[in-house]
Amino acid sequence: MRLSDTIEAFIKEMLREEEQSCELKRNELAQYFHCAPSQINYVLSTRFTPDHGYVITSQRGGGGCIRIVRIRETARDHLAYLVNERIGESIDEQSAQILCTQLAENGIVPKDEALVMRAAVSRQALGLPVPEEIKNMMRSRILKSMLTVIAQRKQE
């Protein structure tokens, strides 16, 4: 397991224990994992974003105190946000893969469905001889279609 994955898992475990939020100090966490504080910043900025369901606030000084808050919303609200605001007319493969993984981690879709979604928007599935911009537009439409069906299922 990579260090970034280990740090992410550690913070998520802290959030499980604390429920909605947790506070940590960047320097103390860096010392604990024997890494530079910039590694902690990297994990926070890439894996604890609003798209992943988190809001981060930080205080300057005092070792860099950081508060991570898990956003609680209904599955329908989250799906509507993804379809109407987040995905847009185009989405790259990496962003689509992350989005599918987060849907499973947040319990919106079962893990096996997330794997199927990931496969449907993968480079292999869209391996057509067309420009990447076109593939990203196709990926967006496929993902939006799947999310719309999931949202309708959640209403039933």
What's the quick description here?
The protein is built from 7 helices and 3 strands; from the N terminus they run αβααββαααα. By secondary structure, it is mainly alpha-helical. The protein has a 3-stranded antiparallel β-sheet.
How would you summarize the topology of this molecule?
Layout: H1 3-18, E1 21-25, H2 26-32, H3 37-47, E2 54-58, E3 65-70, H4 75-86, H5 93-105, H6 111-120, H7 132-155
Antiparallel strand pairs: 1-3, 2-3
Helix pairs in contact: 1-3, 2-3, 4-7, 5-6
Structure notes:
It is a single chain. The protein is mainly alpha-helical and 156 residues long. Helices cover 60% and strands 10% of the residues. Strand 2 (54-58) and strand 3 form a beta hairpin. Helix 1 (3-18) crosses helix 3 (37-47), helix 2 packs across helix 3 (37-47) and helix 5 (93-105) runs antiparallel to helix 6 (111-120). It is globular, with a radius of gyration of 17 Å. The model has no long low-confidence stretch (mean pLDDT 85).
Shape: globular
* Main sheet record: 3 strands, antiparallel
Structural class: mainly alpha
Radius of gyration: 17 Å
Could you report the average pLDDT, rounded to the nearest whole number? 85
Number of helices: 7
> Element order, helices and strands?
HEHHEEHHHH
Q: How many beta-strand segments?
A: 3
Key features?
156 residues; mainly alpha; three-stranded antiparallel sheet; 10% strand
